[in-house]
Amino acid sequence: MPAIVLIGAQWGDEGKGKVTDQLGERVDYVVRYSGGNNAGHTVITPDGQKYALHLMPSGALSPSAMIVIGNGVVVDPKVLLAEIDGLAERGVDVSRLRISGDAHLIMPHHRALDRVVERYLGSARIGTTGRGIGPAYGDKVARMGIRVQDLLDPGILRKKLELALREKNQLLFKIYNRKAIDVDATIEEYLAYAERLKPYIAETRVMLWDALDRGETVLLEGAQATMLDMDHGTYPFVTSSNPTAGGACVGAGIPPTAISRVIAVSKAYTTRVGSGPFPTELFDDNGQHLRKIGHEYGTTTGRERRCGWFDAVVARYACRLNGVTDLVITKLDVLTGLPKVPICVGYEINGERFDEMPMTQTDFHHATPIYEEHDGWWEDITKARSDEDLPDNARRYIARVEELCGTRVSVVGVGPGREENVTRHPLLP
């Protein structure tokens, strides 16, 4: 079977980890293709165990799937090893992990610059996690990045680090009044990481090509989401990579013709973390309700997520941009008990209606949502497993979301557990 791409349709935190975990037992490879440890997936197993994954693909909890960190990911080896150790301590087999030698490394100077630049920007800050993701991608584009494969050649590693720190230490010390990074200490630290990571480093492109040739199923798992895409999101309040479906080909090294299905995950409402425009954001009791009932706190940072009503303009944009074949709506249960559940169906900007995403950053910042109100429901839906089990108003809500997005809703999440879903169309044949 050709490759399947799994992406987020909003600003992240939609529940992609749960979907990957559901599919993990039925696929042969799970590949993480973008981002770094600025992203987090929370997976809850049938026995109630909770796993917070940051760099490891969510398929790590599958008993048999190979798990791959692709070339498009930026890797902090200290964080990755801590995650490997944490999973191993809980009995999870991590020997199936493979890391692309072409993935770039997050270095100490990346983390230092990320934190100090955010503080320096003050009210104009982007809202990064401070984990060095942006600076690592910046060095990659500037062709001065350090890759995973460089851990295997101490001479190359030193040369590249010395070249990078010639500039970065000047910035840290002379511009930001911070301590310079020591070359020798960094080399010693990273060569220790190399010893432990060496068994996992591989030419992952060939591995995936061979798997596709054998007819095996490859699931490509994006971090973050469409509206955080460097090119197609709410720039500059975005991540530093391409978590959209197109980024899967670049970040994993597989051809676009291999992709047969694109699954997008969206909450039944909308959230985002960090700065940037958010037309449907709620500042009232409804926003507090969504945050409290939905446990809307970042997996990686613990930050409160900003909450708002479902934005069909954003969701339709994501479906069209990614060529979505199946939409998964999560956390429908969080809306239970609300008398009215609005859906944003368009924007008003300077007296003009927009049914599609406005072209300019300025217009999007000034967008006022146009709402369509739907009656809520009070029944407990966590035991629902088919459309017929859902209250009439919940079914109408999902039907309207499907109509507005122009893509079929295949699965509806009615609770956090792996099995708490209404499956309307199978995600895998």
Automatic annotation (TrEMBL):
Mg(2+) binds at D13, G40. Keywords: Cytoplasm, GTP-binding, Ligase, Magnesium, Metal-binding, Nucleotide-binding, Purine biosynthesis. The active site is at D13 (proton acceptor), H41 (proton donor), K140. Its main location: cytoplasm. GO terms for biological process: 'de novo' AMP biosynthetic process; IMP metabolic process. Its cofactor is Mg(2+). The keyword Nuclease does not apply. CDD domains: AdSS. It is an enzyme of class 6 (ligase). Pathway: Purine metabolism; AMP biosynthesis via de novo pathway; AMP from IMP: step 1/2. Plays an important role in the de novo pathway of purine nucleotide biosynthesis. Catalyzes the first committed step in the biosynthesis of AMP from IMP. Belongs to the adenylosuccinate synthetase family. This is Adenylosuccinate synthetase. The lineage of its organism: Bacteria, Bacillati, Actinomycetota, Actinomycetes, Micromonosporales. The gene is purA.
